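To whoever picks this up:

The parser on our side crashed when reading a file containing two proteins. I've narrowed it down to the boundary between the first structure block and the second sequence. Both blocks are reproduced below exactly, byte for byte. First block:
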Amino acid sequence: MLTEADVQRGIRDLLERLGFAVFHTRFAIGSDTGFPDVVALSADGLIIAVECKGPKGRIRPGQREWIERFARVPSCLVAAIVGPESGKDWIGYDEALELIRFEVEDVLTVHITEAS
């Protein structure tokens, strides 16, 4: 089963391959409570925010609120809580990778179509 570190690494790797600049707080000391584990920004200003969980992870105070705030930002393509497998409080890792790919490809297709 994937650990939280595995989930973070896989999402970071995908986002970097898709051309996003990726930020990950390694040491949360002094950070706002609940800020997502991974926040990515494209050259076009598109945002992806992901809170990562391990197999026994729990959503702590502030985490859902941050994800919900990111979800309200018009340029945010994906704001999600992701665990190794789908659960009642988050989507599964494979589903998250598919969602990120789909959303990014959809936006790229729209930009290419508009430019034609």
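<<boundary where parser fails>>
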Amino acid sequence: MKTGFGIVISCAVASLVLPAAWAHAQQSNEQLAARCAQLGALYDRYNTQRGEGSSGPNMARLGAGIDCQKGRYEQGIKALEELLRRNRIPYPPAG
């Protein structure tokens, strides 16, 4: 059982650690969002269909974009990387 002083110390430590952990998670989300944007722009740049008779929008690309917009970055990135691989479009490694 913790004493009153032990609880105060525990709360103080938590108040220092939790904001740092939150900031790290936020930074990771920002990096993942940037990766989504990078891969999406790369796909769009090389895989635009022009002219009459094009088959319409790529539903996998649209779905990946929606995943990224809704914060499901891992799903969006995975889908975009698969699209780039399938279309033999080179892309930079994550990092």
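After patching the parser it read the second block fine. Residues 13 and 61 are 44 Å apart (CA to CA). The first helix runs from residue 4 to 46.
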